[in-house]
Specification:
With about 325 residues, this protein is of the alpha/beta class. The protein has two domains: about 70 residues; about 220 residues, Rossmann fold (3-Layer(aba) Sandwich), CATH 3.40.50.450. It is about 45% helix and about 10% strand. It has a nine-stranded mixed sheet, sandwiched between helices. One of its GO terms (biological process) is DNA-mediated transformation. Belongs to the DprA/Smf family.
Length: about 325
């Protein structure tokens, strides 16, 4: 398992009281010495007592020991300050910026110069939704674009499976890489890595309660927005669908709603699958309808509009790559 001293130190710093994402993003640039980290923590956090080198080394060794048993399931750990730490998309407040990631597979797929589209949706799509989603993903993959999703049942699994037919895909998990969730998708996770894709997670420890797991799913939804150039909703119930359609004894998803909400907050372009003639009375498109009604910036996908989205993303990334090449040459 690959990691830098910097990554381990950042992981260790986060174990102390008052040290969260916002603090780390605000105070660190990466590759600070342990002495510098301790000085910052002691002067700018909520620690009741001054931390010592011994305190830091103790927590650091605990983490290294945990990671040693984790290595067969994880290729590496990257953190802010590492040269290969991927840049997120959009405009994001400090408390929601990723600070480290565990990964297995091709980490370059998260590179900002790589074109990514997230495709998400509900857990139990009907057959017509699956057919339409597969056609959509196939068209995206044909353009050399990477598919990002959350490895959940339903629309997420469909997106990953279709992407594997000639393309690459990234699965963002709410669990450590040695505890794939949902467990029935473990084989799919292995296929994603085998065929050049990527598994990524912010966690190396298992959740301790259902409340913590629920929070991790929300964090996963945020990453689905942060690491894509556009996010597409295949289909999803809305928050009030159960009441509106009198749907009883069935869990209706909120993950897609949250991911689309994060994308709006981060200024990530959003699009939805929707046909006014066929989907108007289908509760599985409630969220799609709601987003279209509430926001003028949500694109309703047609073949032409999908082509426009793909062309726009590719043009933006081409300019970004050229810009990075020019800047790099100035320092050679």
């Amino acid at each position: 398992m690959k990691y830098t001293e910097n990554a381990i130190n950042i992981l260790t710093a986060k174990t102390f009281k008052g040290i969260g994402r916002a603090w780390l993003v605000k105070n660190l640039r990466g590759n600070e010495s342990i002495e510098k980290l301790l000085s910052l923590i002691n002067n700018n956090s909520k620690q009741e007592n001054k931390l010592t080198i011994h305190d830091f080394e103790h927590n650091r060794n605990i983490i290294i020991n945990k990671l040693s048993s984790f290595k067969d399931n994880c290729d590496g750990l990257v953190a802010i300050g590492d040269i290969n730490f991927p840049k997120y998309r959009g405009t994001v407040k400090e408390s929601e910026q990723p600070i480290y990631l565990f990964y297995k597979g091709n980490l370059d797929l998260l590179n900002i110069s790589n074109t990514n589209i997230s495709v998400i949706g509900l857990l139990n799509p009907d057959e017509s939704i699956e057919i339409r989603e597969r056609k959509l993903v196939a068209e995206i993959v044909k353009s050399g674009i990477t598919i990002v999703s959350g490895l959940a049942y339903g629309c997420d699994s469909i997106a990953h499976q279709q992407a594997l037919e000639g393309g690459k895909t990234v699965a963002i998990l709410p669990s450590p890489l040695d505890n794939i969730l949902p467990s029935k998708n473990k084989i799919l996770a292995e296929q994603i890595v085998k065929y050049g894709g990527l598994l990524v997670s912010e966690y190396y420890e298992n959740f301790k309660s259902s409340m913590e797991l629920s929070s991790r799913y929300k964090e996963r939804d945020r990453l689905q927005a942060l690491f894509c150039d556009t996010i597409i909703l295949a289909a999803s119930y809305a928050q009030d669908s159960a009441k509106r359609w009198n749907i009883l004894n069935q869990k209706l998803d909120s993950g897609a709603r949250l991911a689309m909400g994060y994308a709006k907050e981060y200024n990530i372009p959003r699009a939805v699958m929707y046909d006014h003639y066929t989907d108007n009375d289908n509760p599985m498109f409630d969220l799609n309808r709601q987003l279209i009604t509430e926001s003028t910036d949500v694109t309703i996908l047609t073949h032409k509009r999908l082509e426009e989205i793909l062309l726009k993303i590719k043009s933006k990334n081409k300019l970004l790559i050229e810009s990075n090449t020019i800047q790099g040459s100035l320092f050679n």
